[in-house]
Specification:
Pfam families: TetR_C_29, TetR_N. Keywords: DNA-binding. This is TetR family transcriptional regulator. The structure is a single chain. This protein is an all-alpha fold. The protein folds into two domains: 45 residues, Arc Repressor Mutant, subunit A (Orthogonal Bundle); 144 residues, Orthogonal Bundle (Tetracycline Repressor, domain 2), CATH 1.10.357.10. It is built from 13 helices and no strands. Helix 2 runs antiparallel to helix 3, helix 2 crosses helix 5 and helix 2 packs across helix 7. The N and C termini lie far apart (66 Å). The N terminus is likely disordered.
Length: 238
């Protein structure tokens, strides 16, 4: 275990393991020992793995390719992440954490109920449009029946603030008579994500089948407005 720890902390041509002396060339000064920053290396692996898995899936994702792009050994990947499956789970956690962190910046509590619902819809649509790799990664996890998400406590915990934020908007809207009571925040979250997700995940097949523009700025703006209208009509009290 100690040898493994030392090997991970020190790598490269200038790294020197304890008990192993490297003789410098005649007349040359000994090269300084270079040590990797652990967190920076781990994050670099995650960033590259995110692109690899989003493009090629879990089965097609290649840890050799990830190691080559990160300029590290494959052994170092498995030092930080015990297996390819664990690496994929960590990538999912990172991707969802980015979305949840962005959601926290919406401050829906400061908006009137209708404005809050529309802001939530617009944000969700914009996030999916700006992160097609996130959409592909979620689709891949669904192919694997969500088993990595099911095993991650972190992924389960990070959903709570998102649902709580929606629940508070619904409660506040119901209290002032703007939103009909009894709406399940998880159901609303699912409806919104289904609408926004489809606009990215099914764009190419829908365009090919119906010859319908879903990619131009004009088409995206129209769809964005339509989803915001749909969500508000879904929750408002007539």
């Amino acid at each position: 275990m100690e040898a493994r720890r030392l090997a991970a902390a020190c790598e490269g041509p200038n790294c020197q393991m304890p008990g192993v002396k490297k003789q410098p060339a005649r007349g040359a000064k000994p090269a300084p020992i270079k040590r990797r920053d652990r967190e920076r290396t781990r994050q670099e692996i995650l960033d590259i793995a995110f692109e690899e898995f989003a493009e090629n899936g879990l089965s097609g994702g290649n840890t050799d390719a990830i190691a080559a792009r990160a300029n590290i050994t494959k052994r170092l990947i498995f030092y930080y992440f015990n297996s390819k499956e664990d690496l994929f789970t960590a990538v999912l956690e990172m991707a969802y954490a980015e979305m949840r962190a962005a959601e926290e910046g919406l401050h829906l509590e400061a908006l009137e109920p209708e404005a809050a619902i529309r802001r939530l819809a617009e944000f969700t649509f914009d996030f999916h449009q700006a992160h097609p790799q996130f959409v592909r990664l979620v689709s891949i996890e669904n192919i694997h029946r969500g088993r990595h998400m099911a095993s991650s406590r972190r992924l389960k915990e990070m959903t709570q603030p998102s649902i709580s934020q929606i629940a508070k908007v619904l409660e506040r809207g119901a209290a002032c008579g703007a939103i009909r009571p009894g709406i399940d925040p998880i159901e609303l979250h699912m409806t919104l994500n289904a609408l926004s997700f489809f606009a990215v995940a099914n764009r190419h097949t829908f365009e090919a089948q119906f010859a319908w523009d879903m990619s131009s700025p004009k088409a995206k703006a129209q769809r964005r407005a339509e989803i915001a209208d749909l969500l508000w009509r879904c929750v408002r009290k007539d």
